[in-house]
Amino acid sequence: MKDKILLVDDDAMVLSGLKRQLRGQFRIETALSGDEALKIIDENGPFAVVVSDYYMPGMNGIDFLCKVKKVDPDTVRMMLTGSADMATAIQAVNEGSIYQFHPKPCPADTLGQAIKSGIKKYRQTTDSQTRMKKVKMSLEQASRIQQTLMPKSNPDVDGYDIAGQSIWCDETSGDYYDFIYPGDWKQEKVGIVVADVIGHGISAALLMTTVRASLRERIRIPGNGPAIVSHVNNSLAKDIEQLDLFVTMFYSEIDLNQKCFRWVHAGHESAIWYDPTKDAFKTLGGDGVPLGVMDDWAYVEAEIQIAPGQIILIGTDGIKEACNSQGEYFGNDRLMTIIREQAAKPAKDILKEVFETLDNFRFPAERKDDETLVIIKVQ
Q: What global pTM score does this model have?
């Protein structure tokens, strides 16, 4: 089907002549004024190209085409004008209200070629928008799927107050956190996993989904933290050998019987441990490489005893590296100040305070990275 063209001129004879000369090339509608043309656009639009005379009673061509731009910005707008109006027409082109202008009278073949050029531009614009809509729909669907893989609620474990949250900077995320409950393992421990794909977008989200699936498959088999992380690493290294991607992970377990916290560090941000009775902080790190880098890396496990009142924070680098408009980083010092001041509150309230402080610190700068944090309070 041919694209629709609208010709606007207050001279019916001119419109009749143009319509006759361009007949067969385009689907043409005509209007004798700007007001009539706007009504036609409202009822029969959109039009690929609108061609208007400059001098018309009530509303000149530039004012009319400016209104067309507001009504349908994709429509290609052209104007026919006399030499006396050339400066005005050039200004309108420079301001973006008009795509092209042509002297009047304009030969039919010249106008026909101009309209064809306008149709090509219109199709390029609308085709691009169609593709963008499809991409957006795909991203929204991917986002919904990824959201279903995130924890639906915080763990309900006697003696522990645990809360987690992940805020994404795009539709999909390279950050991931997960809780593995005693019922999943049939063991008296709770697993807390935080991971981060280096990168953003669909590729990062797909890789993170793979990591989650591999991890959840492995926990069905008896084994300690290093065995579980090594399995995920080995599988991942083979899958992404040709890709310039890798994943950092902090894998941890709370032993409910022995009251201890064990972790395996795979190139991730160190966790932060805080004891309010001594006002003491400690980083819980290690030297394990990110997942997918070396398939035979021997991961090791570390352990600390934990006591009531103590707090452990496991997050991604998006929190520490959040940057404000002055180029300052949020850093761990600000994070530790919040923990010290909010230590008596429930984990979910501390979590809320961290993200609110982070937003206030960053404003008006935009979020540049995904931000994920899990807080564990021993009760």
A: 0.69
